Amino acid sequence: MEEESQLSATTSRIIPLALPKGTEKVCELCQRRAKLQCNKCRVTFYCDAEHQQADWVGIHGRICQLLIPIRSTTLYSLQGAEHLEMQLKKTELIEICRLEAQRKLSERKHYEALPAAQFCLRCSTDVHGPCTVQVVPAYLLLAEANMGLGNLGLVAELLSQVEWVVLKSPDCGHTLHRQLHRSLGLLHTVTGNLEAALFNFANDIYFASEEYGPESTVTCQGYFLMANVFAKQGKMTITHSLYSTVTQTWHVHLSKLVQAHVQNAQTPCMLLEHSYDKSQHAEVDEMLRTILEFEEKNSTQDSGQIAVVTHCLAMLWFLRGDNFKVSPSLSPLKGFRLTQ
């Protein structure tokens, strides 16, 4: 019944495409010849209902009406203030698509993230040009989505394009360098080139330290990824040491958040939202669980480390309001005193 309802909703948003001879439209997702048209905005086209539904779920549902003034007018017919206003509208669309793609990637919805990442890249290219630093974030989003789908050949092509743009842009900031090296490190990890992965994660850590400081939670993400590679190589002592660094960084950070949470009990949600968003919560939760599993399986168990990781998870869940998880998670802490 639910599938029938979704199919009915999809059908109501599309209409067969009837165009004059010599006129051709292309699919929003695959650029093949379009046969269908969005019934709401009438300026977006698809090769079939499957691609229409994928685009609607991925991004079109958010930007459908925003596309009408942009696609109904050609930039060549605009001048001065009107042209600037149109560029600002496109810039707004880029940001919407970027945030939507990031949100879906944080939820591991890689297929749903593709339409937003693709549109972000097309719109960024249109506004800024094809080989500018401004298109790099869109390339990285598209690479991450395809990595999650296992399209590693395409990921390598996308990151190669990013490398070329970054190398020819001497004023490229630390953030883009960090993101590029992190993406390259992840690609090399998946493909089994572990030494190359370690090299890129080391660069990730360097640029993150330059941008945020060596004890930042952003920097410690690089330590975590590097530790995962050492674990694959069987170097458990180094892995444990790096995991300890990550755990201590997050323990300090979360302890400060809990303290501020208690002191500002009237606005707990506002405090948390300014500290890190929902997507970061999911990433940190997964990271700490990975460390905890490693420590519990380690032949030379470090009870102190296990207690600190467990305490981090408890604080994380407390800050998110998942209080039902907190009490069970504190059981390894019985009889153990944490010191700041």
Largest sheet: 3 strands, antiparallel
H/E element string? Answer: HEEEHHHHHHHHHHHHHH
Question: If helices are DSSP runs of H or I spanning 4 or more residues, what is the number of helices?
Answer: 15
Low-confidence stretches: 1-12, 268-275, 329-340
Query: Over all CA atoms, what is the radius of gyration?
Result: 24 Å
Overall domain count: 4
% residues in beta strands: under 5%
- Order of the strands making up the biggest sheet: 1-2-3
The end-to-end distance, rounded to whole angstroms, is 55 Å
Quick one: overall form? Answer: elongated
> Which structural class matches the secondary elements?
mainly alpha
Mean pLDDT across the residues is: 84
Amount of helix: over 70%
**Strand segment count:** 3
Write up this protein.
The protein has 340 residues and is mainly alpha-helical. The protein has 4 domains: 13-73, no CATH class; 83-157; 173-234; 235-340. It is built from 15 helices and 3 strands. It has helices spanning 2-12, 49-63, 67-71, 80-106, 110-128, 136-148, 152-167, 174-191, 194-212, 217-232, 236-263, 268-275, 278-297, 303-320, 323-329; strands at residues 14-16, 36-38, 45-46. Strands 1-2-3 form a 3-stranded antiparallel sheet. Strand 2 and strand 3 (45-46) form a beta hairpin. Helix 4 (80-106) packs antiparallel against helix 5 (110-128), helix 5 (110-128) runs antiparallel to helix 6 (136-148) and helix 6 runs parallel beside helix 8. It is elongated, with a radius of gyration of 24 Å. Mean pLDDT is 84; it is low at 1-12, 268-275 and 329-340.
